TrEMBL record:
Organism of provenance: Streptomyces glomeratus
Name recorded for this polypeptide: Transcriptional regulator
InterPro entries the record matches: ArsR-like_HTH (IPR011991), Carb_Metab_HTH_regulators (IPR050313), WH-like_DNA-bd_sf (IPR036388), WH_DNA-bd_sf (IPR036390)
Comp. bias regions, Polar residues: 263-279
Short name of one Pfam family: HTH_24
Gene3D superfamilies reported for this sequence: Winged helix-like DNA-binding domain superfamily/Winged helix DNA-binding domain
Top-level taxon in the UniProt lineage: Bacteria
Amino acid sequence: MYRTGGRSGRRLSASEELRNNGVVKNVGEARETPTGTPQEELATGERSTRNRVARSILDHGPSTVADLAGRLGLTQAAVRRHLDALVADDVVQPREQRVYGARTRGRPAKVFALTDCGRDAFDQSYDKLAADALRWIRERFGGDEAVVAFARARLAEQATAYRRAIEAADPDQRTEALARALSADGYAATARSAPVGEQLCQHHCPVAHVAEQFPQLCEVETEIFSELLGTHVQRLATIAHGDGVCTTFIPKAPRATEPPKISETTHNASASTAGRNPA
């Protein structure tokens, strides 16, 4: 959702350029601008490629220079040049790559992640309005339980489409089917294998800034995933908590032929860990 004020305290200077130059939908091929091109055309080409770099980070999560070069067909030197400009504009920030399991020798590769201002450039939802509405619901209609009830009702509607996608998939492809359904709703989701299960990764969250104030949104989403997939799931990380990607672990377990019906009283998910990093 669109954030009216970033945590860094200043607005993204290039946000309007990002929006006006198709940062969300620009998928054209990057080309080096020939020598002698007029300055205005040169600047436009630079912005277009820079937008593609930012969009690739949005779609795939925190990325190394090598990752971006491979995905975009650019040299690593060109990627570094664009990243330097994006860092200067507070669109992306460098961070140490998080390593799960045994750490290999040497320093972890540096990855680049979107800042709050960088995420703001991709969407124009009204998170302040949504947060104000949820706060009003909480104060007038039963505290946190009212917020939970709202979140369940809202996600139950979305889950109807997710259920159809899961029911149409083979049992071992249900997480992938859920990821595709989530991507259709703007979550840029992917599924990948893990040593003892699968990980569902959401590289974008349209309600991340509201979920910072109302973690019930993350908790209920985790419950819905559990009910849809018919197994206990565990939320490992969320964008709302400051992580680069929302990550949900789905263990390998026998699943029923038909996913169980969603109800407001089922609580199979690890809601207590929603929005928090694993210990």
